[in-house]
Amino acid sequence: MAKREEILTTALGVIARNGYRRTSVRELADAVGLSQAGLLHYFTSKEELFTEVLRKRDEVDRETYIDGTEDPLEAFVGVIRHNADVPGLVQLYSRLAVDSTDPDHAAHDFFVERFAGDRTEITAAIAAEQKAGRIDAGLDPERLASVILAAADGLQTQWLLDPSIDMAAHLSELWRALTSGAAR
């Protein structure tokens, strides 16, 4: 287990720095002092390795930006803000998100569970804002949560193409638009 954790932690740094397409299994193996076969002993495939890297990234992001935060949507924006510092991980996430639409892909279950969990958390935050009168109570919180997640993922794609886009500022603007609607 310790070696697997070392692999995942090292891979986070290497992929963040080099990007998904420029990171090979050989490079990751070398970084942790293993052969390629030795590295893949801990994972069934390259796809599983990269899926587990994303799972590790989510764990680190949760500990760093989300746990203990009173405002879950500000925490979410904080994660998106941090993503601008790790373009390689954003590339990996974007690539695997698309590939995972194939039910046979190693990342399929990870993304299904991830989106369900994110929707649940954001839905609860929206419902709390509705109860406090800051978001129109007539809007469906689950649909809004899906829209916010879609906006975040779409902004990440746009940012990969044009790094001048401030993903966090755009999401904050969307949130302000939602919360200002309750006053009308």
TrEMBL record:
Keyword line: DNA-binding, Transcription, Transcription regulation
PROSITE patterns from the UniProt entry: HTH_TETR_2 (PS50977)
Domain HTH tetR-type: 1-61
Superkingdom of origin organism: Bacteria
DNA-binding region: 24-43
GO function terms (MF aspect): DNA binding
InterPro entries per UniProt: Homeodomain-like_sf, HTH_TetR, Tet_transcr_reg_TetR-rel_C_sf
Gene3D superfamilies: Tetracycline Repressor, domain 2
Protein name (Swiss-Prot/TrEMBL): TetR/AcrR family transcriptional regulator
Native organism taxonomy: Bacteria, Bacillati, Actinomycetota, Actinomycetes, Micrococcales
